[in-house]
């Protein structure tokens, strides 16, 4: 068995473990829903509650300012642990509130899910490294390899952020998405190991593509947070009007305001990485094609994505656009990222013809 | 705040009441109103999103700037739709009136927004931190401590000042009016002015990029030139195959250096069977002579342009250039040249055109296919099975008649208009197309003369064709004086972005309140200006450090005073 076959084997193994992790995480969500139902019945407030269920307040966490437009900079809960200002990770970690309406500890399935994700990540890393050795270069030079490395980075970002902020509840989303992307990559994008064509022989391939994938990792996490934020916002609205909440587990997650702050912090890191991607890409384009910007399809989409996220950051600073509207922009932004990867690379004509398909 | 009035951090607008009758606006009033609309955050946001949407069509429809052949093809495929799209500049999206309008409005808005903010920021930079609020209790990170006994209020606030200063705060001290007997001192501190500076630098750098790109690029040019191995090019306007000057370009700025393509070599993958025959390296060995200087040699590669004589030389394409000689029936040479053939596929099946306008009884045109390694499919059609010269073969279809060169219309050297010509070989003529290996000669039909496929390396062994056909390289030669500027502005933008997103801007207050029993209460609190997740931790940290500072300074005092 050669290195590449070993890499493929590892990749399939990693996918199997991701699938198990996904199931564990899904199980955890189901348990959360059940717990919320019990808590609701116990307090008898299920249908009547006009404030987030009382357990949260009893636990010392103050209910979050529900109106994000009025109360943006204010803390939504307890301060994070010792924090020396300024570092990037700290930005995500500080002030992670446990301001859930129904606080919920870490269930066994959640912990199993995280452990399995770490295991799957390790195998995934091995698959990626082996592919790199098999090819004798960085493993991100065609669609198959982009997908493999990009998803690896998504999980890496997720796991690093986990050491700082409790976003374990996103496990279902992260493992699920990675599983789908890896599945598509393995089935549709697979290509044999091939040497780099001259156009890709550049240090900028290493930098530009790596940073783009890393940025995508942050955008993915931000996207998930924004989606949960919107769901949570709806739940909070339903609770105040005594409506019926479908996704009960939401009550165990942070408030919409906290989720919005988290999403923002993740997004700005992604945005900076994307800005750098854009610049590095231009420098490379100048070296390879003799012009730094030529509105090639791939350049157009990189620009569109950058502009949408700049819009998102602006929206967060514009009265009337904070909260749900800006969350929608983040979702549009990530859709454009996925479109750029999955559709533009494969179907659009342009100079960036290296999908390897 | 200096930010636009609808920045979330600005005071909320007074609720508009319906019965207020708006005074009639004069022209100036309207202009002012318009300007205010243009420079608020909502407009900026709208224009940004509009710009994103407006950029989409350019990726769906081929663009003249990046894919002119695609546009021609599109017109051929969609004869009804294409002219309509062309009317709305869909093939020139990024220079279209509507796209330009959006980004110009956006940038006017940007400038209108940033200038007043800059003014305010300069004022803020010189201003003192504001007075300490009367009650700190409701502010972020409020912390209350009791000072070690024997601490003096003024001294405590003084040590808080030096602590804050060391942490990069600007500090003002206040001596509040005595409240209920005891005295009250406070320090009001602010930091993070860099955040706004970074934001302004970022937005200004964007303007810088736009201006340099918009105006500066007018001074440059770009040109293309194909060189066969051994050929020389002199950097003058006429020597280019195609040339596009910027608006302000003058040809006196071309430095007439000489550039020779000495050798073009390609390395093919031969180990990895999955990628057998894939090109893994192109190297153009060139020599350059600048006026009054000795000859210099260099190598141009993809991804590694050569900078010389104020220009950048890029390697863009390459292929084979079979050398062909045509003689008249008497053996007099009427044409001899190495003709660049355009590659048609990965194995370099190449297509070329030879035009012989003079010297024969009729004008002659040939359409040639060149196969570096010829193979035949089951139907008998030829193709190339490998891109290097293993078994080279040239096939020629001959046409005679009017080449159309005298009509005064420029014609491409890569295409042959056969409308007014008669086909002499191949197709339905019943005459075989000519097939030539390097070094071979064949007679032209109708006794027109002969054609020779010259062997570029005649002395080689019988089966070694590796040097038999010359290669050509196509170079792009550019001059863009704005590149450095654009890069500098881009780096500035990135730095500005980093500071503005990661430097926290905050106010912190330390208050020392003497109570009647002589004990001293210390209060700490902060206020975020903009996104600042670490504020509370920072306030607690200051309180802790201040506490330690006070303890160490009081313990230095003789023990007797401490009771
Ligand atoms: C070319 C168009 C523009 C782009 C690409 C852009 C991009 C950005 C980005 C990326 C940020 C966040 C980083 C930072 O704070 O420095 C930002 C912030 C900001 N921009 Fe712009 N901007 C543009 C135009 C404008 C305009 C026209 C205005 C004024 C109406 C404006 C006002 C602001 C303000 C006030 C902030 C601070 C937001 C905050 O407090 O978080 N920008 N802009």
Automatic annotation (TrEMBL), chain B:
Q: Which domain of life is it from?
A: Bacteria
Q: Does the record bear Endoplasmic reticulum in its keywords? A: no
- State the UniProt keywords alphabetically: Cytochrome c-type biogenesis, Membrane, Transmembrane, Transmembrane helix
- Major localization listed first in the record, in broad terms: membrane
Q: Where in the cell is it found?
A: Membrane
Q: Which InterPro entries match?
A: Cyt_c_bgen_Ccs1/CcsB/ResB (IPR023494), ResB-like_domain (IPR007816)
- From the record, give the transmembrane residue ranges: 44-61, 97-116, 200-221, 484-503
Topological category with respect to the lipid bilayer: Multi-pass membrane protein
Domain ResB-like residues, every copy? 41-538
What name does the UniProt record give this protein? Cytochrome c biogenesis protein ResB
Q: Please name the source species.
A: Cryobacterium glucosi
């Amino acid at each position: 068995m050669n290195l590449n076959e070993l890499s493929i084997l590892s990749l399939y193994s990693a996918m199997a473990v991701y699938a198990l992790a996904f199931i564990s995480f899904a199980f955890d969500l189901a348990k959360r829903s059940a717990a919320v139902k019990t808590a609701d019945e116990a307090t008898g407030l299920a249908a009547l509650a006009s404030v987030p269920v009382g357990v949260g307040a009893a636990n010392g966490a103050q209910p979050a300012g529900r109106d994000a437009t009025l109360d943006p900079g204010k803390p939504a809960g307890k301060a994070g642990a010792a924090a020396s200002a300024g570092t990037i990770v700290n930005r995500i970690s500080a002030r992670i509130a446990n301001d859930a309406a129904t606080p919920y500890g870490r269930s066994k399935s959640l912990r199993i899910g995280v452990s399995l994700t770490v295991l799957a990540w390790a195998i995934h890393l091995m698959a990626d490294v082996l592919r790199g050795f098999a090819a004798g270069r960085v493993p991100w030079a065609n669609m198959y390899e982009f997908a493999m490395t990009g998803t690896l980075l998504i999980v890496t970002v997720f796991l690093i952020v986990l050491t700082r902020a409790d976003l374990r509840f996103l496990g279902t989303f992260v493992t699920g998405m990675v599983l789908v992307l890896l599945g598509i990559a393995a089935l549709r994008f697979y290509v044999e190991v091939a040497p780099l064509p001259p156009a890709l022989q550049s240090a900028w391939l290493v930098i530009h593509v790596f940073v783009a994938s890393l940025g995508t990792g942050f955008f993915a996490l931000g996207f998930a947070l924004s989606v949960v934020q919107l769901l949570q916002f709806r739940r909070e609205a339903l609770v105040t009007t005594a409506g019926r909440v479908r996704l009960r587990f939401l009550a165990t997650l942070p408030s919409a305001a906290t989720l919005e702050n988290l999403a923002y912090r993740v997004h700005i890191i992604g945005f900076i990485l994307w800005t750098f991607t854009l610049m590095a890409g231009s420098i490379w384009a100048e070296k390879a094609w003799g012009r730094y910007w030529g509105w090639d399809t791939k350049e157009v989409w990189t620009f569109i994505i950058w502009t949408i996220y700049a819009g998102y950051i602006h929206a967060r600073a514009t009265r009337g656009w904070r909260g749900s509207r800006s969350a929608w922009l983040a979702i549009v932004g990530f859709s454009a990222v996925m479109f750029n990867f999955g559709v533009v690379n494969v179907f659009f004509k342009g100079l960036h013809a290296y999908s390897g398909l | 705040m200096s930010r636009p009035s609808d920045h979330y951090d600005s005071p909320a607008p007074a609720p508009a009441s319906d019965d207020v009758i708006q005074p009639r606006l004069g022209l100036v009033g309207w202009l002012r109103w318009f300007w205010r609309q243009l420079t608020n955050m909502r407009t900026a946001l709208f224009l940004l999103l509009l710009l994103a949407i407006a950029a989409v069509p350019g990726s769906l429809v081929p663009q003249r700037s990046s894919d002119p052949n695609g546009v021609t093809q599109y017109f051929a495929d969609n004869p009804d739709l294409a002219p309509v799209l062309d009317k709305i500049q869909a093939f020139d999206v990024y220079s279209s009136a509507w796209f330009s309008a959006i980004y110009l409005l956006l940038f006017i808005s940007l400038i209108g927004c940033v200038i007043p903010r800059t003014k305010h920021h300069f004022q803020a930079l010189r201003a003192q931190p504001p007075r300490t609020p009367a009650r700190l209790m409701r502010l972020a990170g409020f912390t209350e401590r009791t000072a070690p006994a024997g601490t003096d209020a003024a001294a405590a606030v003084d040590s808080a000042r030096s602590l804050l200063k060391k942490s990069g705060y600007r500090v003002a001290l206040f001596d509040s009016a005595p409240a209920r007997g005891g005295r009250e001192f406070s320090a009001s501190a602010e930091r993070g002015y860099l955040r706004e500076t970074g934001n302004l630098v970022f937005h200004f750098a964007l303007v810088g990029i736009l201006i340099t790109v918009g105006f500066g690029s007018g001074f440059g040019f770009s040109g293309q030139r194909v060189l066969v191995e051994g050929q020389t090019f002199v950097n003058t306007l006429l020597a280019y195959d195609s040339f596009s000057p910027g608006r302000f370009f003058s040809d006196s700025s071309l430095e007439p250096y000489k550039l020779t393509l000495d050798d073009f070599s390609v390395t093919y993958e031969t180990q990895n069977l999955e990628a057998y025959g894939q090109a893994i390296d192109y190297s153009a060995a060139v020599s350059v002579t600048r006026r009054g200087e000795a000859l210099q040699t260099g190598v141009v590669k993809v991804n590694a342009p050569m900078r010389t004589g104020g220009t950048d030389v890029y390697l863009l394409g390459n292929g084979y250039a079979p050398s062909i000689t045509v003689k008249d029936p008497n053996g007099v040479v009427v044409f001899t040249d190495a003709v660049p053939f355009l590659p048609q596929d990965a194995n370099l099946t190449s297509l070329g055109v030879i035009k012989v306008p003079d010297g024969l009884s009729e004008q002659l045109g040939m359409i040639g296919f060149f196969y570096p390694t010829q193979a035949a499919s089951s139907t008998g059609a030829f193709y190339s099975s490998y891109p290097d010269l293993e078994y080279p073969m040239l096939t020629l279809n001959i046409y005679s008649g009017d080449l159309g060169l005298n009509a005064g219309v420029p014609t491409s050297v890569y295409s042959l208009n056969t409308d007014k010509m008669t086909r002499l070989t191949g197709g339905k003529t019943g005459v075989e197309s000519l097939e030539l290996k390097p070094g071979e000669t064949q007679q032209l039909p109708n006794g027109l003369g002969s054609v020779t496929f010259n062997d570029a390396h005649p002395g080689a062994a019988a089966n070694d064709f590796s040097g038999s056909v010359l290669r050509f390289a196509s170079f792009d030669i550019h001059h863009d004086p704005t590149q450095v500027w654009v890069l500098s502005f881009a780096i500035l933008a990135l730095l500005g972005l980093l500071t503005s997103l990661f430097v926290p801007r905050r106010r912190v207050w330390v208050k020392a309140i003497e109570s009647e029993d002589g004990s001293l209460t210390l209060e700490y609190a902060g206020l975020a200006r903009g996104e600042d997740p670490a504020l509370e931790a920072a306030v607690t940290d200051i309180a802790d450090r201040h506490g330690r500072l006070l303890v160490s300074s009081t313990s230095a005092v003789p023990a007797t005073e401490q009771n």
